[in-house]
Amino acid sequence: MSNEDVLVGEKKQCVPFIVCFNKENNEVSSNCRQFEFKGIFCRHALSILIHKIIFLVFDKYILRRWRKDVKRYHTKIKISYDNWSDKLEIQQFDKMCNLFCTVVDLTAGDETKCNIVLEAIHNLKAKLLRIDDVCGRRDETNSNIINGD
Questions:
Q1: In terms of domains, do 77 and 137 share one?
Q2: Of 36, 54, 35, 43, which is closest to residue 15 (Cα–Cα)?
Q3: Are 79 and 128 part of one and the same domain?
Q4: Number of folded domains that form the chain
Q5: Distances in Å between the alpha carbon of 42 and those of 25, 50, 54, 67, 103?
Q6: Is the alpha carbon torsion for 119, 122, 125, 131 positive or negative?
Q7: Residue 98: inside a domain, yes or no?
Q8: Whether residues 137 and 83 fall in one domain
Q9: How many CA atoms lie within 13 A of 32 on its CB side?
Q10: Going residue by residue through the chain (149 aa), what tens digit of pLDDT does each one get?
Q11: How many beta carbons lie within 10 A of that of residue 35, not counting itself?
């Protein structure tokens, strides 16, 4: 059990939060349900781990977007302050992003159109990976940057 002062109207009220820890499957749950609803590992759950002398947060509670080893598309292009628009890689990246943004605008809100675009992207990705395999230059990190599977 973990207590917290919560503002209710204009008064503070001490609210008890019940936290359950299952040692067998390393699951922690709190009745605040912040992890289930918002992906936030709450301080109530964290305080129980500290109380149990467990100083390692289990992998299932570390969201992918919080990890340092996640590849993100915007980190693919290296920043250069000298003639940045002259670099072929940057020009290609900009062209593809601009076109894709247009496609997103055309499909937003229409599930049929969205499914058509997703299928085309999956097919294009598979085709590009086959070309890399044939040429012997497949880079595993590139195929994991945006994994829509």
A1: yes
A2: 43
A3: yes
A4: 2
A5: 19, 13, 15, 17, 38
A6: negative
A7: yes
A8: yes
A9: 21
A10: 667 777 778 888 887 778 888 888 888 888 888 777 777 788 888 888 888 888 888 777 777 666 666 555 555 555 555 565 567 877 888 888 889 888 988 888 889 999 999 999 999 999 999 988 777 665 544 444 444 44
A11: 17
Closest listed residue to residue 17, CA positions, set 9, 25, 35, 26: 35
- Residue 103 resides in a domain: yes
Tokens representing 94? 């900009």
Which residues constitute the domain of residue 98?
Answer: 73-143
CA angle (23, 28, 29) in 5-degree steps: 140
CA distance 122 to 8: 49
Q: Is the Cβ–Cβ distance between 64 and 39 less than 8 Å?
A: no
Phi and psi, residue 109, nearest 5°: 85, -5
Tokens of 2: 């973990």
In a domain, 148, yes or no: no
Structure tokens at 30: 């709190």
Are 132 and 138 spatial neighbours (Cβ–Cβ below 8 Å)? Answer: yes
Three-state helix/strand/coil letters over 39-101: CCCCHHHHHHHHHCCCCCCCHHHCCHHHCCCCCCHHHCCCCCCCCHHHCHHHHHHHHHHHHHH
Q: Say what the pTM is.
A: 0.39
